Amino acid sequence: AQSVTQLGSHVSVSEGALVLLRCNYSSSVPPYLFWYVQYPNQGLQLLLKYTSAATLVKGINGFEAEFKKSETSFHLTKPSAHMSDAAEYFCAVSEAGANSKLTFGKGITLSVRP
Amino acid sequence: KAGVTQTPRYLIKTRGQQVTLSCSPISGHRSVSWYQQTPGQGLQFLFEYFSETQRNKGNFPGRFSGRQFSNSRSEMNVSTLELGDSALYLCASSLGHVAEEQFFGPGTRLTVL
Lengths: 114, 113
Hints:
The structure holds 2 protein chains of 2 kinds. By secondary structure, chain A is mainly β. Chain A contains no helices and 12 strands.
């Protein structure tokens, strides 16, 4: 069975600082991994996805994530935080045979201090 | 192209009532998935429909049901509402392959009193 762990529920960084949001997964087969962002009162928007091609994945708004099989991790990073990055971030996993079922982590709220 | 739309956006019901939520996917998408989002449990998968057939189901009681029409529009029904059903219900559409991006609607906020 697939699962996702996002440690901590809240991360606060200063504007211009590095953003690092951690995600670890569990999957019995090679996974597909996703990062989604949710702004207040909105649905989820895809930031990036890993589908077994390059292990370093670049997404929208300057975010990127690296798939590390040995660590079962897919951490999200951005070199320099902007105020507009304040939102809730979800890591999700899907796997072959699960069709379109996404299993989400609990989510991390990112705050950006001026 | 138009995004995923969900109606209504807000709904207030009382315990014991039933409710039907609607989702219109992006044109050409044949898969519609439903998720429940609550502060305590986070995002939980309810079920997925593909070409009018339920293809996947999460761990929710039978009070939660859904269907999909030939135009890919989907409805979700919750019968005998409980206070704990208060949540944001999100639907997502995709082409249907496990690696494809799911496009989410803005959600329906259901409050059960």
